[in-house]
Every structure is written in C-alpha cells, then in structure tokens.
Amino acid sequence: MKGKIPISQYLKFAVIGLVTGIANGLFGSGGGTIVVPAMVLLLKEEEHVAHATAISIILPLTLVSAFIYVSNSYIDWNLTVKTMLGGIVGGYLGAKLLNVCPSHVLRKIFAVFIIAAAVRMII
Known about the structure:
Mean pLDDT: 89
Order of helices and strands: HHHHH
Number of domains: 1
Distance between the termini: 50 Å
C-alpha cells in the first residue's frame, strides 16, 4: 500500500486538471497535449500510463464541453456523423498500438504531433 500523499501532490493534480479542462473547453481539444507532458514531467508517470490515463481524463472533460457546445448550437452534426466512424476505428487502433510502441518512440511521435499543431497554428 502506498504512503500518504502530500498536499503539494494534490495541488499538482488540481492545477493539471484545471489547465487541461480550460484548454479542452476553450479549444475543443488540446487537453492531452497538456496533461500527458504534465503527468510525465511533474508527476513522474511512465509514458504509456500517461497517454492511457489522459484518455480517461479527457473523456469527462469532453462530455462537459460537448454539452455546452450543443446548448449553444456549435456542433455540425452532419460533419460529426461523417467523421465519427473513422475516429472510433482510429481510437481502437491507436490504443492497440500504444501496447507495442516503445516509450522513446511514443514520445517522438507525440512531439511530432505537437510541433505540427503549433506550426499549423502559427502559419
């Protein structure tokens, strides 16, 4: 059984959660780009665990954000339906690949996605 968790650790959890939730709600995505590095760097979590845990953190945040987006009529349901099946298949394949991808490769792939997103936003 693990020892008592210090209050400073709970503060890290709260700050990571708050920043992740704000990013996810504000941008419609991006929570994973914050929470994964935060778990690895600040909480010293293993890379695979951080990526897998990020999904379970992002799901409830996404549901809350989606509810607000729906209530403001921001969602294009036609586009949602057209892309959902590919997203489901991609999510399944990505989860399977996570099991066989070494941490150093996973870190590099994740970095490429973050850099590509940053470049796209700047250009």
